[in-house]
Amino acid sequence: MSIAAPSNPKEITLRGIILGILITLVFTAAQVYLGLKVGLTFATSIPAAVISMALLSAFKDATIQENNIVQTIASAAGTLASVIFVLPGLIMIGWWEKVPFWPVFGACAVGGVLGVMYTMPLRRALVSQSDLPYPEGVAAAEVLKVGMASRSGAEEGKAGLWAVIWGSLASAAYAAGGAIKFMAAEMSIYFRTGSGATGIGSSSSLALIGAGHLMGITVGIAMLAGLIIAWGIMVPLMTSLTPAAAGMDASAHALSIWSKEVRMMGAGVIGLAAIVTLAGLAKPIYSGLKSAMETARKAKLEGATLDRTEQDLPIFIVGLITLISMVPAGWLLASFLDGTTIASLSVPLVAVGIAYILIAGMFAAAVCGYMAGLIGSSNSPVSGIAILTILGAALSVGMVGRSILGPNTAQALIAFALFVTTVVLAVAVIGNDNLQDLKTGQLVDATPWKQQVGLLIGVVAGSCVVPPVLELLNHANGFAGAANLHAISDQPLAAPQALLISTLANGVIGGNLQWNLLGYGALVGLLLVLINFALKKASNDQYSLPPLGVGLAIYLPSAVITPVVIGAITGYLFERAMARKTGGETAKRLGVLVMSGFIVGESLFNVALAGLIVLSGKGEPLAIANSLSESNTMLIALIVGSALVWGLYRWSARQGEQIGA
């Protein structure tokens, strides 16, 4: 096959790789914390692109393609950190006390490499020849084009960097106010409803406000519906059917029923919604794979000349890397079983694990890649993929280990299923990210194979960061539902996704899963699917109510969901206000960057706080004694948070007006 000699812009450079790795390290640490606290992550492509443009603007020979490689490397952070939706489960079940570096690094790296390999053949079908919208990929390309195009673009690039900086500083300062105890960490109210109880809570978190803005109004409304279903219907109803114990206040009564019963129903909603979503994708994914194979066959037969912007890594290299990856994958799984109560079953378990990673990983990568094109990386139902993956892994592993099942054996089988799921989830989320990045690359005339190399670099860099940050947070805070033998603080991180995944694995292998509650949740999920279908049809796809968003709001604590909903609504109102103003589009982009800064600043502050907890040996090293009442600290948190959000939205509007003038 002959390849033309097209123009060859500066693309992969040493400075770009170094900058991409540095941004990856920062964003991965932030994402690990955010995922453990609230069970959500965010796409890092746009803030990475802005930071890259602002810093590389010092070099006159910097190109848009070079900036694209930087954001491609850094985007691995926003996705690879999703493995913490599973990994803390190994601590929760008592398998690990500390997070080991090499097994976690290996699971992330092997899964990430496979995620790139599996989705590479899908590029033509799902990117080049597809009309999928790729909202985040298109947005990142627009940011790169604007930043490189003109003087006003350069001005916007600098303003964008300041937007990230101001947002980061504001959220870090706000989080510090909670750490020193001048502001409440949570604002909540609980009350009796006859013989039952309910309430609502909201974390004092600018990061969650930012996450809501980035998710958008559709997901925000879905989560609001979930809050109403959980705390307006389910909790009052079920607390009235289960009387409170003597001396139990409204708060304890409501939270007890939510955590034991309503939450499992939320898991049922998520599971059903995920299955329906994936079933709906079966036909387009099959068509996409068929088209990709047909295109590759045609190119080979006809000896077609490929333009630079159509050159992927050769398919034989993709296949070779995939096969070679099975060697470290097998070694990882065998090492994980070494010395355990199920070591005698190592050969069949490793064989099942490898087969599951190959087959389930390929399916999950294709599905996640398609969903990235459909609804964006941030909105992809990774939770649903993780739930289905652990159920499949637990059933497969449980069948192999059934002959020697016992208390210690069950724990080992659960741990092995969780570890296999970690690798498959890494495959899925990097596959999701790869196609999103390739869409950005298509729009800025990038070379696909160079982007794929860039993403592999980001995978390795991110894999180096996840284990130490996870162990730091484990040592400082620990995780809800774990023994936390070495944790210093008495305020464990919720790690809600990992708690759900480990509970499901334990239930499937241990035979004590609350199928009735999951079934009730699935019925609610089915009703939501029907409502969403009817709403989309009646509005000609203009409106929707994503069932996965509703399910997440039932499953996650109200303290997490409430600020996300507030962020989605305030973001919608801000963007609507900017729609007809001079420089409105610029102001909207700056608003997105401020919100990204909110997430980065608070998350990095809390990672640093975890380091301080470990160094000082104190659970609350920054706390200062004061005479403020709980209601006063809540009021201060509300006023300061509102002022910061309003002030930075106002700053974005003014900057947009000045740049657009």
UniProtKB/TrEMBL annotation:
This protein's UniProt keywords: Membrane, Transmembrane, Transmembrane helix, Transport
Ranges that cross the membrane: 12-34, 40-59, 71-95, 101-120, 159-177, 189-209, 221-242, 262-282, 315-337, 349-373, 385-405, 411-432, 453-473, 493-510, 517-535, 555-574, 590-614, 634-651
Major localization class: membrane
Topology class, membrane: Multi-pass membrane protein
Pfam families linked: OPT
Source superkingdom: Bacteria
NCBIfam families: OPT family oligopeptide transporter, OPT_sfam
InterPro entries with a match to the protein in the record: Oligopep_transpt, OPT, YSL-like
Places the protein is found: Membrane
Name of the protein: Oligopeptide transporter, OPT family
